[in-house]
Automatic annotation (TrEMBL):
This is Adenosine deaminase. Its cofactor is Zn(2+). The keyword Signal applies. Belongs to the metallo-dependent hydrolases superfamily. Adenosine and AMP deaminases family. ADGF subfamily. It comes from Culex pipiens (House mosquito). One of its GO terms (cellular component) is extracellular space. Pfam families: A_deaminase.
Length: 254
């Protein structure tokens, strides 16, 4: 199957699932390619993304370059090509997943911000750059924080020392993501939300912190404004049902 056929199959499956599950809101695809490619190849993939986006505008919504940053090509290698497509290809770049400071992997953050990435995958090393994290905050670029992945891959041992603690304290926008949960048999994003509540939030935080990161997932998503409004209407009663469960079962002893 080619990529168009694959996306069409995904689209058909999603629509079928929505028919059977009215509270399932759908799927958005970020077209991601490995950063080990060369300049000519990245341009061809950008052109492919534009075509897919035109064919499936509500499904294929963004472009990313993924892969371990410390051993693969940095974003600046592709800046000429990426700038060429900047106005037509919404970017969601994986950047700064490193403990390095001033390395190519670390400085991917600079290019991600300058290329107007809508979100930044990981952004782990961003806290080392005061000017940059303030720009991220001002621009409303959310960091996709992946707590469990960062621990499994040994970027952090004690989750209380995760840079996201700093981002929370400075109100830098974050969303919680699972990264590659299948590799460590994690269940979607649930474990990461638990880590976020128990380790990234201040001691005084309660379930309101959990609500904030849930709603920020909607705020910084690729949903359109009408879709966000519609989704919030679906989400609110589910949140209230969750609170009823927490209270009835005395899950939190506050």
């Amino acid at each position: 199957y080619n990529e168009f056929q694959i996306v069409k199959m995904i689209s058909d499956i999603v629509e079928s699932f929505k028919q059977d599950h009215p509270d399932f809101f759908g799927v958005k695809i970020i077209y991601a390619k490995h950063r080990s490619i060369d300049n000519e190849t990245v341009e061809s993939f950008l052109e492919k993304f534009i075509t897919l986006n035109q064919e499936f505008p509500d499904l294929v919504v963004g472009f990313d370059l993924v892969g371990q940053e410390d051993i693969n090509n940095p974003l600046f290698l592709f800046t000429d090509k990426l700038r060429k497509f900047e106005k037509t290809a919404p970017y969601f770049f994986h950047a700064g997943e490193t403990n390095g400071y001033g390395s190519e992997a670390d400085l991917n953050l600079v290019d991600a911000v300058l290329l107007n990435s809508r979100r930044i995958g990981h952004g782990y090393s961003l806290y080392k750059h005061p000017v940059l994290w303030k720009m991220v905050k001002q621009k409303g670029i959310a960091l996709e924080i992946c707590p469990l992945s960062n621990q499994v891959l040994r970027l952090v041992t004690d989750m209380r020392n995760h840079p996201a603690v700093f981002y929370v304290s400075e109100s830098v926008p974050i969303v919680i993501a699972p990264d590659d949960p299948g590799f460590w048999d994690s269940v979607a994003v649930g474990f990461d939300f638990y880590y976020a509540l128990m380790s990234l939030a201040p001691h005084s935080a309660g379930i309101g912190f959990l609500k904030q990161i849930v709603w920020d997932s909607v705020k910084y998503s690729t949903l359109t404004e009408p879709e966000r409004t519609q989704y919030a209407e679906l989400l609110q009663p589910k949140w209230e049902a969750f609170l009823d469960f927490v209270i009835a079962n005395k899950v939190l002893n506050y």
